[in-house]
Amino acid sequence: MMTDTPRLELIDVHKSFGPKVVLNGLNLALSQGESVVVIGGSGTGKSVMLKCILGLLHPDQGRIRIDGEDTVDLRGTERERILTKFGMLFQSAALFDSLTVWENVAFGLIEGAGMEREAARIIAIDKLAKVGMGEDMAEADPAGLSGGMRKRVGLARAIATEPDIIFFDEPTTGLDPIMGDIINNLITECVQDLGATTLTISHDMSSARTIADRVAMLYGGKIIWAGGVDEIDNCGNDFVDQFIHGREDGPFALEVT
Amino acid sequence: MSNPLAAVGRIFLSFLATVGRLSMFTGRSLSAVVTPPFYWRLCLQQMMTIGYYSLPVVGMTALFTGAVLALQIYLGSARFGAESAVPNIVVVGLTRELGPVLAGLMLGGRVGAAIAAELGTMKVTEQLDALITLQTNPFRYLVVPRLVAATITTPILVLIADIIGVMGGYLVGIHRLDFNSAVYLKNTFDFLEAMDVTSGLVKAAVFGFLIALMGCYHGFNSKGGAQGVGKATTDAVVSSLILILISNYFVTEAFFSQ
Question: Rounded to the nearest 5°, which phi and psi values hold at A200?
């Protein structure tokens, strides 16, 4: 059900590292249940945007609202309360090497929500099944898993606490096209089951077309175009057009050279 | 040509910035020690890793240090006919100074490097960020168990090292220097005072804290992939060894200045 208050809203967010301006007045709003994919070249600040929302980085200026609550200056337990609303699939999956697969999936339930280990294990096995992994993998060491398997475990961990908002950081990077498609479909299925709002950052247009309700292009530290996934091929924006077709010639090329 | 004064100024400012960052890191760590949740299971795991698995290297170091100490003191004291002082000087030298310092230096290499490499790898592979997104404070989950475990287990290790070191001196005294076994042991224990052992154990606790702190600090601040983790590991070992030697002087002053 759509509500007037955006689930997630970034208003005029700025972030610089020394002289390098990464976010320069970023505005973006996500409604409840909406899936937005932010596309853009490497180093345009997509990951910085996610880290600012999660509180891993502090924006220099601007507001970030979660369900209408301003979160930029939240610290300690207040920040942890906001983080219970989030799940995240990291680009490298960021699995904890010292824990087994099921302990990774159940980590947020045990350490974050204070659930008993046995109860958390049952949920973890269920979430692993949702991403196509059997119980026999539960005790496996994450270091021994392939890239695709690691992403699946990361996805199971991201949905284990059934968060309201899920971030996907380059979910198909480093995977072959078939495994990429499997991950895209798993993301779509899991998110539909949860009814979660999702924000994905990606270079992969195939992934974006599968996952997104809406696509936004980040360039020069701000969103230069946003629209429905069905509008992207005829958006009339030269940057978007060059990016989605992967052409060498265009406005990006002028800056690269 | 750059101004040499400006270069000195930059180095000094960089040093001050590092001191500031380290002070803040220490403050956050100590604050996390006294606020819940406390991860007992992780603390026990770290006590095994830091303490139990360091026993062979610390034991070997102590055994041969005690043995060499007995030989050297015998050779030196023979010049003025004071060979009988060997057991006394071995036990005092080991408990007050060589036991804690050498164990600290060995642990700085073994444990400090391991902590920095593990946490540094977690940092560059986004595992620290993942912890935060899973509502877990990395200071409480990673730093506190290592700090507590190192601070508790290093004195225990040093106590064992003291015993093994005295045994090393005893073996050399009996088998190489022709001391009478009962006389050697009597001289050892008669001369030893509680303060000798206590000061060594306090030093050990300080060294353990510093080793874990340096490992965690440099691990948390590593950046840039494998090279960054390597640099963090080197920095952790070098800084912990230097801090051990500096703090050793001040703890010794505090105990024996009167």
Answer: -115, 140
Question: Can you tell me the mean pLDDT for B89-107?
Answer: 96
Which chain A residues are Cβ-neighbours of B126 within 8 angstroms? 90-92, 94
Contact (CB, 8 A) for B205 and B198: no
Report ipTM for this prediction: 0.89
Our CA-based measurement puts residue A233 at a distance from the nearest CA of chain B, in whole angstroms, of 34
Burial class (CB in 10 A: 0-12, 13-18, 19+), A180: buried
- Please indicate, yes or no, if residue A55 is contained in any of the structural domains: yes
B-interface mutation test, from A48, A95, A107, most B Cβ less than 10 A away: A107
Question: What confidence tens digit (pLDDT) does each residue in B184-213 have?
Answer: 999 999 989 999 999 999 999 999 999 999
Does pLDDT of A257 surpass 50? no
Domain of B62? 39-256
Tokens 């303490």: give the residue: B51
Chain position carrying tokens 């801090």: B243
A88 and B141 within 8 Å at the Cβ level: the answer is no
Report the distance separating Cα A182 and Cα A171, nearest Å.
Answer: 11
Dmax (CA) of chain A: 57
Q: Are residues A154 and A227 in the same domain?
A: no
Two tokens, residue A78? 């207040």
- Range of the structural domain that residue A109 is part of: 97-162
Cβ A84–B134 below 8 Å, yes or no?
no
Domain membership of residue A117 (yes or no) is yes
Inform me whether the pLDDT recorded for B42 exceeds 60: yes
To the nearest whole angstrom, how far is the Cα of A232 from the nearest Cα of chain B?
A: 32
Q: Are residues A149 and A179 in the same domain?
A: no
